[in-house]
Amino acid sequence: MLLMQGLVDGHTHACQQLLRGRVSDEYPMVWTRFLVPFESNLRPDDSYINGQLACLDMIKNGTTSFADSGGIHMERVADAVLESVMQATIAKFTIDMGNAITGAMKETAEEAIMHTRDLYKAYDGKGDGRISIWFAIRQVMTCSWVLIAMARDAAAAELNTGIHAHLCEHKDEVSFCLQNYHLRPAQFLKSMGVLDPNLLTAHNVMLSDEDIAMMARRDVKVIHCPRANLSNHGFPKTPQMLQAGLNVSLGCDGTAPSNLDLFDEMKALRYSMIAYWGLPFFNPMVMSLSHAS
């Protein structure tokens, strides 16, 4: 038995629990081929059961708090969290564009923000403050600049809450942003007034050195999902991020690739960083145990 503080999963998808391990041997893009069809067809009770299973799995692995970047029927996930006595920061998907997005996941910008407002009014602060409701920006490929601006204004200016976003997850996202906005994703979010301390960004695999320096100056919060990143997207510049002073934390990214064990994420990140950034330069200390403190 180990007595310690509970772990915090910085980026997960509770609604994907019933997909446990389903995409572990699949080629990208697993999100459009598996996750979108699955989540688009979830009913409220499906989301509730997914939420219950996610909370149980996290508690078994030492996690007592998590940040969920959104899904369908997130009010039922919040119900599951309240029953579990966990803490959670919950967002609802906000997606208003993208040809691959269908069904209930795609709304107008106005509908997406309205539904998050409704979730905020019903659940923020519930359970003696254990539930916090944030806004979401799925990513620049599926959120119009109008939706991003509305989420920014509602979260920062009006409700004083945070924004949970996927950022620089894969090269297609960078290519999309360069083609459509002539800016890299982090630069585009800065131009929109979103790249600030209340922004929590997941994955962060394709950040340039300039992106890292800019995000460190603006105190953006960075979440790595090592096993999901390594299986689909590549090796992030974690040593450079830590050296720049970025706040880097870990998330499991849901159970579709594997499980909700943050200890597995710690091991995957450390040894992958040593293999990729350390051994080629005879520097096994590029990701030391002290970086976990």
From TrEMBL:
PANTHER family: AMIDOHYDROLASE-RELATED DOMAIN-CONTAINING PROTEIN, AMINOHYDROLASE SSNA-RELATED. Keywords: Hydrolase. This is Amidohydrolase-related domain-containing protein. The keyword Hydrolase applies. GO terms for molecular function: hydrolase activity. Residues 4-270 form the Amidohydrolase-related domain. InterPro entries: Amidohydro-rel (IPR006680), Metal_Hydrolase (IPR032466), MTA/SAH_deaminase (IPR050287).
